[in-house]
Amino acid sequence: MLRRISFFILVLFFLSGCAVRIEKPAPPVPAPPPRTTVPPEIPKPPVLPPVIWKPAPPLVRVPALQLPPFTDDMDLESLETAVEKSLQYYKRAGGRGPVRMDDTWVSIKDLQDSLIALREILRSGETAEAKQTRIRETFDVYQSTGSDGENTVLFTGYFESIMKGSRKRTERFKYPVYRAPADAIKVNLGRFGEKYKNEQLIGRVKNGELIPYYTRGEIEEHGSLAGRDLELAWVDDRVDLFFLHTQGSGKIELTDGKLLQIGYALKNGRPFQSVSPYLLKMGKITPQENSYKEIKKYLKEHPEELSEILVHNESFIFFRIVKEGPVGAIEEILTPGRPIATDPDVFPKGALAFIRARKPILDKEGNVESWIPFSRFVVSQDVGGLIKGAGRVDLFCGSGGEAEMLAGSLKEKGELYFLVKKRPDGRQPATAVRP
Fold this sequence. Notes:
Layout: H1 2-18, E1 59-61, H2 76-93, E2 99-101, E3 104-106, H3 108-122, H4 128-138, E4 139-144, E5 153-166, E6 175-178, E7 185-188, E8 200-206, E9 209-212, H5 216-220, E10 231-235, H6 238-247, E11 250-254, E12 259-267, H7 276-281, H8 292-301, H9 306-310, E13 317-321, E14 339-341, E15 352-362, E16 368-382, E17 392-399, H10 400-409, E18 411-421
Parallel strand pairs: 5-11, 5-17, 14-16
Antiparallel strand pairs: 1-4, 2-3, 4-18, 5-10, 5-18, 6-10, 7-8, 8-9, 11-12, 12-13, 14-17, 15-16, 15-18
Helix pairs in contact: 2-3, 3-4
């Protein structure tokens, strides 16, 4: 019995070991949903305030350790004469001010006091070295930042021309020097709004409308002013007369030996345009010949081309007879070598200044033999049609042929400084509004 039970258990065990186990397949695992890739957020650039370009101020204060040596290549008597002319101008006209120099306002009285202080130093009888020391101790010095903000100033020269002429027209003297016509109307645009301050135009009235005044071509080629008794004198050289318009004043040696002194009265309001770009464009001169001397030489040698060339400068100057001259923009006689013409919208008229540049050494024919450095005290006593901005200065070289040769050769980069007497209590900081 026991054996039978054991056998039965063994059979069951065997069958259970050989049984095939059938399982239902597991349901498929659903695929995960497609993964959405979110691009990383690109940070936005910060919002920056708009960049506002601010030009360099026309004048910046020079630190004491960077002051130039105040040496002067001319006689000090001429400097004192020029200083007196500026003082007379301030006494008579009062000047225009205050003016901004770096971070301070400088009054007209400051400019007057500066001239008086220099005059006292000139009269002190001290040695040149002692005078330099006193100048450094007495004045604040401001340098022009120039046209590029890097203190670059272009120096040129001008002169007073002397021409042959007559009070009556003759076969020889046939080119007129005109006085200002009565129908030339000067309009101060500043009266029409603050944004037009210091601007003006010159025109004439036609059919109740103000229109531009006659151009050089209309005056010289078409006789727009002929027959109106506007001639101050007649001269014999059209080229010299053209450059007289550039210089702004001159002397006319009359047939009776007398000298007629003439000065600037008015212009026609048209913009000044040098004829040199036209001459270069037409191949009449080379870039190496682009100088006063060579341009004048070409015009003299080609009189048949004058009508074609000169009209490219539409600007025309009217003159007046003056007792003495030459007379600058401050209505005072200019002292050769001391006055400079500057932009009156940038630098104050009559102010004391100091320049450093190079000047030419000329031979008898006016050719440049060499260049030498020079420095001198000057006064801002004149203006010029092409003298605009902080980077231009025109030096008055005197009268006659030698002055003409020097002025025609001078075209050099240099440095310009203005000197203002120090205040014991310090200067008033500049603000957006003039005091």
